[in-house]
Amino acid sequence: MRATILRPWYVVGPGHRWPIILTPLYALAACVPLWRPAAGRLGLVSLEQMTQALVRAVEKPPASALTIVDVPGIRATA
Q1: Residue 44 bridge partners (DSSP)
Q2: What pLDDT, on a 0 to 100 scale, did the predictor assign at position 6?
Q3: Which residues make Cβ contacts (< 8 Å) with residue 63, sequence separation at least 6?
Q4: In the prediction, which pLDDT does 62 show?
Q5: Residue 5 near residue 68 (C-beta atoms within 8 A)
Q6: Which residue from 45, 33, 47 is spatially nearest to 69, judged by alpha carbons?
Q7: Coil, strand, or helix at residue 17?
Q8: From CA 23, how far away is CA 77, in angstroms rounded?
Q9: How high is the pLDDT of residue 56?
Q10: Does the chain have fewer CB atoms within 10 Å around its N or its C terminus?
Q11: For 19-53, what is each residue's pLDDT tens digit?
């Protein structure tokens, strides 16, 4: 059975915008080489980006048994 797992840390949308106040911390973490991978992996995605990633996962199933898409992959599909 083939499956795609989408792993966002948080989906920002109507009524769920509180993590936007963390954006300066993400920018700061991206400047520190040791924290850069975690800052990218734990980034925020918008509701539109998540919807587009879900549509892509349904329209184009993975070739292998399991595909895990993190935040950078979700942003790339948008």
Answers
A1: 10
A2: 93
A3: 2
A4: 87
A5: yes
A6: 45
A7: coil
A8: 21
A9: 93
A10: N
A11: 999 999 999 999 999 999 998 888 899 999 999 99
- From CA 9, how far away is CA 7, in angstroms rounded? 7
pLDDT at position 73, please? 92
Question: d(Cα 40, Cα 57) in Å, to the nearest integer?
Answer: 21
- Where b means 16+ CB within 10 Å and e means fewer, 19-29 reads eeeeeeebeeb
Cβ atoms of 7 and 37 within 8 Å: the answer is no
d(C-alpha 39, C-alpha 70), whole Å: 12
Find the mean pLDDT for residues 58-74. 90
**Separation CA 67–CA 24 (nearest Å):** 31
DSSP strands (E only) in the chain: 3-6, 10-12, 44-46, 66-69
Closest CA to 4 of 62, 74, 75, 48: 62
How far, in Å, CA of 69 to CA of 8, rounded? 8
